[in-house]
Amino acid sequence: MSETKLKIGILGASGYTGAELVRLLVRHPDVEIALLTADRHAGKSMGDVFPHLARLALPDMVSIADANWSMVDFIFCCLPHATTQKVIASLPESLKVCDLSADFRLRDVATYAQWYGGEHQAPELQKQAVYGLTEAYRDDIASARLVAATRQDVT
Asked: Which homologous superfamily is 1-78 in?
């Protein structure tokens, strides 16, 4: 175990994906969950929303607008589809992000519009996103700012 833990933020912590990620990450010896966001549940603890997580020492949830980005090294984005694009585009460029939504899964913006029925709100980020399959993109992932946890490389 390293002496310095990676400080993690989870956007959308009050949703199913966010809560499951919290449950998994609290067990990791090199991770500290330093930030949890949930706009509708801002000010609440994870235990208020998910009683099975009440015993965990976690920060209270805050709104994205009130998040202190300087306290995290890495962000997991667990927001609903079509929400993630604008949020990630507004984050400090120094933050590395793993997106668990569908917003960055298609490389081509025209294909995205065709499949999802609307223009992508962060096309420059969509083109930069690296698919999180380490067997195929290990080197790209290591240097990427944005990793798409799900992707179809359709052009």
From this structure: NAD(P)-binding Rossmann-like Domain (3.40.50.720)
